[in-house]
Write a structure and sequence with these properties.
single chain; 278 residues; alpha+beta; three-stranded antiparallel sheet; 8 strands; 20% strand; elongated
Length: 278
């Protein structure tokens, strides 16, 4: 059995960031083999991840990056179980590592991003698993990317909500300013689509049926139910689709009117909203 010194334990701790006692236990089990000890620590992290798989992750941190030419945005959100973990340095460093990997590789999906291998030989998934082992909490990654004529981004003050919004026909408009206003609208009002054409058919059918049932419960004649339901559907579009929503900073105009006032014909092509715990 190899003798495990305090220097050995500290070396493994520096390499992995794991706790002193965990490092000592891993080195003892590996008979002083550092690579084997690292594997043991990673397996321990996976066991913790499996054990906590059903736990709720309502805290975390969002980070975003927009390309220099402003045509692509990437947003990562790493969720955890407690607010205290979301504030520690190694948690936020991991979020930045993940975002950097997304930008470097131009990952198009969460699965692709998790498979990215870093210079240390570990994948992003393995880094997440490692941190799970160190902090003892479930971690859950969300990743979205958006390409448009111009992309604006916004992270809410709680660092738990973020938006990417794609704009087109921007002309000479101040993309950063108008994009921020629209993104803040998206965070606050949670639109389901850009406009009515983007609402899926299942949602439309459900809203029509709800409208009919409400009208029927109010004693309206059967012959009027369809017309009443269509009226309620139009109200749904106004309240739940971005371009038709009233601008939260100025209720006298819709988002569509706001954009058009900044540059004739400017509109939103797409948006991505991510919220941790909501």
């Amino acid at each position: 059995m190899a003798a495990i010194t305090a220097a050995d334990v500290n070396k493994l701790r520096t390499m992995t960031g794991a706790g002193m006692m965990d490092c000592k236990k891993a080195l003892t089990e590996a008979d002083g083999d550092f690579e084997a000890a690292r594997d043991i620590l990673r397996k321990a992290g996976q066991k913790i991840a499996d054990k906590r798989a059903e736990n709720t992750t309502s805290e975390g941190f969002v980070a975003v990056a927009v390309s220099e030419d402003g045509t692509n945005g990437k947003l990562v959100a790493l969720a955890c179980e407690t607010e205290s973990v979301a504030k520690v340095a190694n948690f936020r460093e991991l979020v930045q590592r993940i975002l950097d990997a997304a930008v470097r590789t131009n990952a198009t999906s969460k699965e692709e991003l998790l498979a990215v291998k870093e210079d240390d030989g570990l994948t992003i998934q393995e880094h997440i698993t490692d941190l799970t082992g160190k902090i003892g909490e479930k971690l859950d990654l969300t990743y979205v990317t958006l390409t448009a004529e111009k992309v604006a981004s916004y992270i809410h003050s709680d660092s738990k909500k973020g938006v990417l919004v794609g704009l087109k026909n921007v002309g000479s408009a101040d993309v950063a300013a108008v994009g921020r206003d629209v993104a803040m609208q998206i965070v606050a009002m949670k639109p389901v689509a850009v406009d009515k054409d983007g609402v899926d058919s299942a949602t439309v059918e459900r809203e029509i049926e709800i409208g009919k049932e409400q009208a029927r419960a109010e004693g309206k004649p059967e012959a009027m139910l369809e017309k009443i339901a269509q009226g309620k559907l139009n109200k749904f579009y106004k309240e739940q689709t971005l371009l038709n929503q009233e601008f939260v900073k100025d209720g006298s105009m819709t988002i569509a009117q706001l954009l058009d006032s900044k540059s004739k014909g400017m509109t939103v092509s797409d948006f991505k909203r991510v919220a941790i715990g909501a």
